[in-house]
Amino acid sequence: MPRKILNGLDLSSQKITNLADGTAAGDAVTKAQLDAIARGLDWKNSVRAASTTNLTLSGTQTVDGVALIAGDRVLAKDQTTASANGIYVVAAGAWSRATDYDDSTEITAASAIPVEAGTANGDAVFILATDGAITVGSTNLAFTRLGGAGVSYTAGNGLTLSGSAFSVVPKPGGGLTVDGTGVGIDSAHTGLAKRYAVNVPTSTTATITHNLNTLDVVVAVYEVTGGAEVECDVTLTSTTVVTLGFAVAPTTGQYRCVVLG
């Protein structure tokens, strides 16, 4: 239990948990509110749901799968007339703008509005992207999504971001493969030069199986000790095999063959 001390409250190194966001001037604020201030966001009270299309702004209705009742707050962000966008309070008749978001001192750039529920927008946050001076009812208001389950962004330049996970998008025919282990070179791609190297077998007719799947190869043979290039007969036997011909069979590990293709 906390201990009362003179001029304060001793919490004995314990945390205050489950604290609601402060709304009045004399309220305590949560860490989330402080973090938001540090990021430059102007957090507003949450809404029950956010629109996915133009709303009638009148009467109880279902928005993004949420059956709204009178008194619910809703973010209208997709109005045909963009100046009508904003936070509203649901009513049996015409809706009114929420009192905490109905004048130019409250509707500010970087307003952050959490959404409680909804098929498409539940648990997301929407940010007001409109800059400059705002006149309620005449300035077009544009909202952009900050996050939430199922959100997907195009990061560009071969990257996508889904939720908090980045993915690499290989260009079709670009010679790359992507799987759960990482990014690699597509061995079947014909536009990249590939290399195969092996010690030459001890035979006057040495078979080198390179599996590069092309006759367009360059073959080099050199001495393992000293690195001097060796002249020999080279036959492109198939798209996967070259045959080397020697007057005298090389010894084990004497020569090395490199195939580029």
Descriptive overview:
- With 261 residues, the chain is mainly beta.
- The chain has 3 domains: 31-149, no CATH class; 156-185, no CATH class; 195-260.
- Helices cover 3% and strands 34% of the residues.
- The protein is built from 1 helix and 23 strands.
- The protein has one helix at 31-39, and strands at 3-5, 8-10, 42-43, 49-50, 62-63, 66-67, 73-76, 86-89, 96-97, 111-114, 125-128, 143-147, 152-156, 159-162, 165-168, 176-179, 182-185, 195-199, 205-209, 218-223, 233-235, 241-245, 255-260.
- It has a 4-stranded mixed β-sheet with strand order 3-10-11-12, with helices on one face.
- A hairpin with a 6-residue loop joins strand 8 (86-89) and strand 9.
- The protein is elongated and about 100 Å long.
- The N and C termini lie far apart (76 Å).
- The relative contact order is 0.09.
- The mean pLDDT is 87.
